[in-house]
């Protein structure tokens, strides 16, 4: 039997009227195709998701990227309309899920917002616009001169900068190298790492791109780039999802 990976949803309004929980299909496809698991969407809403029951059901958790930022009050900062939207119900679920997964040894993989949630769950802080910090580049997705998002996804998700991995770290071990190139589609990023958050990958401008949770009994890694976009053909992202898949299979087999 295939292992099951819970994939968190995000609040979204369809036609500005219909409230839905949304998961990007590439996340689901990456879990199915590369991790070799059954993706199971769950609501980023504490009124619908009971974490204990969730973690009894799944063998791993994928925290996806999302348009909404983690609410600043979660790390002692002030909210601002410029940095909206927020998704406070997802915050409630995701931060608790991070802590519960690490405590129970449930494999956890955080992507983009997911990495940020892992950091905040362990007491770290975020900056709403990394590009505004001295010496940083613009990590947001490419746009046309008109300001519209570039229509070609191959351009939007193209590798845009290097990430230097810590020698001897978990990422360097999994990937078999110490420098990789990744896509970049985020505004918010890690400012101060949380307790137990080990920084394992850094961009040339100092932006934190890869983390692990120290002393976690299971897989507990996060990346700032969108690894779910192309793991079927990108060797770096494929290795990450394959490693996550191995971890969830090990957990499933222990429970048989």
Number of strands: 13
Treating each run of at least 4 consecutive H or I residues as one helix, how many helices? Answer: 7
Low confidence ranges: none
What is the percent of helical residues?
Answer: 25-40%
The CATH class label is Alpha Beta
CATH architecture: 3-Layer(aba) Sandwich
Structural class: alpha/beta
Shape designation: globular
Give the N-to-C terminal Cα separation: 10 Å
Would you tell me which CATH topology applies?
Rossmann fold
Give Rg in angstroms. Answer: 17 Å
Please describe the biggest sheet, giving its number of strands, its sense, and whether it closes into a barrel. 9 strands, mixed
Q: Reading side by side through the largest sheet, how are the strands ordered?
A: 4-1-5-6-13-12-11-8-9
Name of the CATH superfamily: Class I glutamine amidotransferase (GATase) domain
List the helices and strands and how they pair.
Blueprint: E1 4-8, E2 10-14, E3 18-22, H1 25-35, E4 38-42, H2 51-57, E5 60-63, H3 88-104, E6 108-111, H4 113-121, E7 125-127, H5 153-156, E8 161-165, H6 170-175, E9 179-182, E10 189-192, E11 197-203, E12 208-213, E13 220-223, H7 235-255
Parallel strand pairs: 1-4, 1-5, 5-6, 6-13
Antiparallel strand pairs: 2-3, 7-10, 8-9, 8-11, 11-12, 12-13
Helix pairs in contact: 1-7, 3-4
List keywords for this structure.
alpha/beta, Rossmann fold, 29% helix, 9-stranded mixed sheet, 256 residues, globular, two-stranded antiparallel ribbon, 7 helices, 24% strand
């Amino acid at each position: 039997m295939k292992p099951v990976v819970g994939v968190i949803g995000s609040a979204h309004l369809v036609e500005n009227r219909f409230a839905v929980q949304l998961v990007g299909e590439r996340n689901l496809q990456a879990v199915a195709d590369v991790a070799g698991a059954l993706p199971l969407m769950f609501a980023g809403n504490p009124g619908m998701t009971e974490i204990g029951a969730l973690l009894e059901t799944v063998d791993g958790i994928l925290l996806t990227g999302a348009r909404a930022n983690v609410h600043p009050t979660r790390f002692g900062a002030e909210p601002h309309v410029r940095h909206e939207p927020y998704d406070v119900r997802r915050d409630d679920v995701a931060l608790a899920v991070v802590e519960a997964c690490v405590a129970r040894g449930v494999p956890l993989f955080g992507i983009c917002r997911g990495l940020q949630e892992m950091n905040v769950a362990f007491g770290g802080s975020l900056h709403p616009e990394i590009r505004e910090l001295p010496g940083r580049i613009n990590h947001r997705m490419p746009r046309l001169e008109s300001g519209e998002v570039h229509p070609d996804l191959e351009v939007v998700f193209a590798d845009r900068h290097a990430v230097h991995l810590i020698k001897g770290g978990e990422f360097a071990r999994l990937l078999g190298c110490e420098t990789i190139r990744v896509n970049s589609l985020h505004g918010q990023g890690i400012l101060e790492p949380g307790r137990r958050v080990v920084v394992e990958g850094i961009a040339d401008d100092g932006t934190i791109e890869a983390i692990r949770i120290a002393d976690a009994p299971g897989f507990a890694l996060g990346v700032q780039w969108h690894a779910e976009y192309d793991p079927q053909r990108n060797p770096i992202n494929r290795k990450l999802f394959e490693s996550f898949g191995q971890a969830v299979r090990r957990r499933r087999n222990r429970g048989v």
